[in-house]
Amino acid sequence: MMFSYSLAVYLTRGPIWTRMVGSFETPCEQYWWTGLLHISNYVNPDATCVSHSWYLACDFQLNIIAPLFLILLQKRPKIGWILLGVCIAASVVGATVNAYLRELGSGFMLSEFTSSRNSDLSYPIDHKGIHYRISTFLMGIGLGYLVFTVKQNKANQNISKVLWQVGWVVSTSILAAVVAVTVVMVDPDHKFCPWLDPLFVGLSRPLFCISLSWVILACTLGYGGFLNQFLSWSGFRPLARLTYGVYLVHYLGFTKQLYGMQVPLTFSFIDYVYLLGGDLVVSFTIAAALYVTVETPCCRLATYFLKGKKKRDSIDETHQMSDFRTSTKGSEQQQNN
């Protein structure tokens, strides 16, 4: 946040770079506190200091309410599953109906291409609020609990091989279909369809999440084959530890590249791949530096103090038990005397 407000303007030069970075100043001066409190997705959502940090607020809020569902799933599984289903259905139906009533088209930043179509970005709370994003989060909670019960041998794993094969075909088809339809729907020349666009807005994320959940479940239960071996490759672990840092820095990187251009860019597929590769390398390099200098030291300090507190609590409990035993022995001796 401080970097975006004070130092980003010096990264490069360009005809629109200073103006674009200057647009950070007002949100950072007036609404910096919404980012610190993780409420920027609801409070002034169209004036976020670091534009992509709204998802941190969204993720924070979702994790606050997660224990409610986890406790119910553990204590009252039937009630927990019913609550999950009701909330998922309400979120999906609400997103679909809202898109229909407001005639929201699908796609990302469609207003940049044409003024005749609206997207959920036209209403920042609809795009950034958890009420229309909670469905996929709850699917993840349900999947996690299901995997947990399977590993604890509390769930029946007697599923036929044919059913697993059908599941793979269906899930793969849905994943491919969502990606293919997305390409069509985000086309600037696509005209708003009063029934297709709202359905896509409401169902695309949940369908993709359900299909991906099947892949995870199948790999967990040993039906992933080569895909499970690939996804379990140990080389992904160090990269996975850097993904949060990449998320934080990637936006500023390609924004600098886009708005810092001083001459028109001749677009081609090879050039795009080259630029994408550069963005990945730079983002992961900066993320690695942040991981070594910031994230790891902070995690170790937190672990140290938490362990220290546990040790102090353990020592206090030991002293209390020792005092209790001493007093008990003393009283017994007095009674014997």
From TrEMBL:
Positions of the Acyltransferase domain: 31-270
Entry's transmembrane regions: 54-73, 80-101, 130-150, 162-185, 205-227, 239-260, 272-294
Region (Disordered): 317-337
Pfam families noted in UniProt: Acyl_transf_3
One MF annotation (Gene Ontology) recorded for this entry: acyltransferase activity, transferring groups other than amino-acyl groups
Biased composition (Polar residues): 323-337
Domain of life, source organism: Eukaryota
Keywords from the UniProt entry: Membrane, Transmembrane, Transmembrane helix
Protein name (Swiss-Prot/TrEMBL): Acyltransferase 3 domain-containing protein
Lineage: Eukaryota, Metazoa, Ecdysozoa, Arthropoda, Hexapoda
